[in-house]
C-alpha cells in the first residue's frame, strides 16, 4: 500500500476514533511517540501494535526521542535513566576508548528497551557542536565542542542502536549548536562565516553522512541563505546538506509545529517539501494540524521513496546481548565520569 510522506504523532495513550480514521485515510509513513503517549510497557507495546495495524503496515516505522538526560520519553519507574551526551564527552577526555564504550553501551541498552516495545527508530545521535553563548536547548545533550570528538561519539551511539536492531536518525543537520534560541519558540539566526561553519558545525556531520536518516535544523545560516531556516531552504539542502556534507539518506524535517517556522501549518508543510525534504514530521498530536499537514503532503514516491525503503532495509536483527552486564558496565563508567567532572 502506498503511503504519504509524513510522520505523525498522536494525542494520548490510546488512539481515538478520529485518529484511527485519519491514519486509515491519510496513510502516514510513520509515527512518533512522546511522554503523553507513555504509561506502562504493556500500554506502549499495545499502542505501537495498534498504530501499525490501523496503518495496515507491519513495518511502519515508529520513532521516539530517547537520548538520555533531559530528552528521554521513556523513564522511571518502568525504564532506567540514561546519561546525557556530556557524560560521554567527559569520559572521552579522560580516555577516548572509555568514552566511546559508554556511548555505545548506553545506545545498545536504549535499543533493547525500544525493541521490547516494537519501537524501531530512535531520533539519535546528535552531531550538534555547541559554542559559548548558545541557547541551552542543546547544552549537555551534545557530545562535546570538537567536531572530531562529536562525530566519533555519534558514531559509537549509532553502532549501539544498530546492534540493537534500532535505526538512528542523525540530528540536527547541518547543526544546531550555535543557535541562540530554542526553536520550539523562536527562529534563531547564525551569522557565522561559511568557512568557519565548514570547519566546525558542518564538519561534525560529514563522517556521519552515510546514515540512512537525518533530521533538519530550524536554524537560519545567513552565510548560506539569510532568508530561510535550513528546513525550508532549497539552497541549504542542495548546497550544504546534500552537497558539502554529502548526506544522501532520507531527510526529514524537525517538527512542523515548532514556532521557529513561519506561516500556517499548511504553509510550513508546503515549504518543507518545496525545499527538498523527503519527509515532514508533525509531533503534537493536534488532529486539526495533522489534517493540515496531510493535506499538503505528497505521496511518497521517486527518490524519496527509494531513500525511505533503503532506510527501512538497513535495520538488522538485534545482536546477542547481556543486558545486565552492559548496565553494570555503563553504571561504572558513569560513576567514573561523575568523579572526573567533580
From TrEMBL:
GO molecular function, one term: beta-N-acetylhexosaminidase activity
Keyword Hydrolase in record: yes
Glycoside hydrolase family 3 N-terminal domain location: 16-295
EC numbers: 3.2.1.52
Gene3D superfamilies: Glycoside hydrolase, family 3, N-terminal domain
InterPro entries per the UniProt record, alphabetical: GH, Glyco_hydro_3_N, Glyco_hydro_3_N_sf, NagZ_Beta-hexosaminidase
GO terms of biological process kind: carbohydrate metabolic process; peptidoglycan turnover
Highest taxon of the lineage: Bacteria
Record field: catalytic activity: Hydrolysis of terminal non-reducing N-acetyl-D-hexosamine residues in N-acetyl-beta-D-hexosaminides
Keywords: Glycosidase, Hydrolase
Keyword Signal: no
Alphabetized PANTHER family for the sequence: BETA-HEXOSAMINIDASE (PTHR30480:SF13), BETA-HEXOSAMINIDASE-RELATED (PTHR30480)
Family: Belongs to the glycosyl hydrolase 3 family.
Official protein name in the record: beta-N-acetylhexosaminidase
Species for this entry: Bradyrhizobium arachidis
Amino acid at each position: 500500500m502506498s503511503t504519504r510522506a509524513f510522520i505523525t504523532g498522536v494525542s494520548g495513550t490510546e488512539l481515538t476514533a478520529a485518529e484511527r480514521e485519519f491514519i486509515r485515510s491519510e496513510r502516514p509513513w510513520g509515527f512518533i511517540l512522546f511522554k503523553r503517549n507513555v504509561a506502562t510497557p504493556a500500554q506502549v507495546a499495545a499502542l505501537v501494535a495498534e498504530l501499525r495495524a490501523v496503518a495496515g503496515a507491519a513495518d511502519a516505522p515508529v520513532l521516539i526521542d530517547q537520548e538520555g538526560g533531559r530528552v528521554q520519553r521513556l523513564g522511571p519507574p518502568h525504564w532506567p535513566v540514561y546519561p546525557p551526551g556530556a557524560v560521554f564527552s567527559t569520559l572521552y577526555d579522560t580516555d577516548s576508548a572509555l568514552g566511546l564504550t559508554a556511548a555505545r553501551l548506553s545506545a545498545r541498552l536504549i535499543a533493547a528497551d525500544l525493541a521490547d516495545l516494537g519501537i524501531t527508530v530512535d531520533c539519535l545521535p546528535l552531531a550538534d557542536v555547541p559554542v559559548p553563548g548558545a541557547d541551552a536547548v542543546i547544552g549537555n545533550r551534545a557530545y562535546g565542542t570538537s567536531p572530531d570528538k562529536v562525530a566519533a561519539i555519534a558514531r559509537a551511539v549509532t553502532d549501539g542502536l544498530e546492534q540493537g536492531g534500532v535505526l538512528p536518525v542523525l540530528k540536527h543537520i547541518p547543526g544546531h549548536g550555535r543557535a541562540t534560541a530554542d526553536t520550539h519558540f523562536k527562529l534563531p539566526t547564525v551569522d557565522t562565516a561559511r568557512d568557519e561553519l565548514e570547519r566546525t558545525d558542518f564538519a561534525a556531520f560529514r563522517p556521519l553522512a552515510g546514515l540512512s536518516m537525518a533530521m533538519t535544523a530550524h536554524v537560519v545560516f545567513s552565510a548560506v541563505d539569510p532568508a530561510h531556516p535550513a528546513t525550508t531552504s532549497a539552497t541549504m539542502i542542495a548546497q550544504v546538506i546534500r552537497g558539502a556534507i554529502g548526506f544522501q539518506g532520507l531527510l526529514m524535517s524537525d517538527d512542523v509545529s515548532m514556532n521557529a517556522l513561519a506561516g500556517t501549518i499548511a504553509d510550513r508543510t508546503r515549504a518543507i517539501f518545496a525545499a527538498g525534504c523527503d519527509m515532514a514530521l508533525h509531533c503534537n498530536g493536534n488532529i486539526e494540524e495533522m489534517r493540515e499537514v496531510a493535506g499538503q503532503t505528497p505521496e511518497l514516491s521517486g527518490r524519496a521513496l527509494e531513500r525511505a525503503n533503503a532506510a527501512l532495509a538497513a535495520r538488522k536483527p538485534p545482536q546477542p546481548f547481556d543486558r545486565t552486564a552492559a548496565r553494570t558496565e555503563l553504571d561504572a563508567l558513569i560513576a567514573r565520569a561523575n568523579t572526573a567532572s567533580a
